[in-house]
Design a protein that fits this description.
heterodimer; A: 116 residues; mainly beta; 4-stranded antiparallel beta sheet; B: 111 residues; 9 strands
Chain lengths: 116, 111
Amino acid sequence: GAVVSQHPSRVICKSGTSVKIECRSLDFQATTMFWYRQFPKQSLMLMATSNEGSKATYEQGVEKDKFLINHASLTLSTLTVTSAHPEDSSFYICSASGTSGGYEQYFGPGTRLTVT
Amino acid sequence: LAKTTQPISMDSYEGQEVNITCSHNNIATNDYITWYQQFPSQGPRFIIQGYKTKVTNEVASLFIPADRKSSTLSLPRVSLSDTAVYYCLVGDTSFNNDMRFGAGTRLTVKP
């Protein structure tokens, strides 16, 4: 199946700083990418949907000025957590769908963010 | 977007067949049914996808009745490594298919 990578796999940052997480589709063009966050023992919560070259669509309750999403190319989307706080500590997962031939989404391995 | 309902948890023993059922009463004509597996601190992994009747691959089978209001994921002869959370998702086939996850089913396989 198609491969989606995320970088970094884990990051620790201080409160008030910003952190950027990259999501790449390695062997297909991702027309749409999705960002999720997951707290321990909970399900994935969709944060936003982004289409290449256009602004992301955020889910209700997700602050677009705090979670900046850029989908500048068909293989790369970034999520920047601005002015991070301890409550932003979570597992962030991206997924991509596109020209891989199937209808399923392909998920990245996730990024563990810890804000101290 | 169709909402899905699954059992919160299931227990099984090694070597048994496990069937996890998902209800999706409001499924639309264009919706496919997709199942994912997730291990702790990993992204979900695609297991199987289907539209109707039965689909089988090397790891699982998916049974979908004629009314498509439910589906059953069947895992043959589970092992300890199948302990994971299993999610059923329903969505259409466009590339803008946004998939909101339900609670999933936590499967525990015991020796």
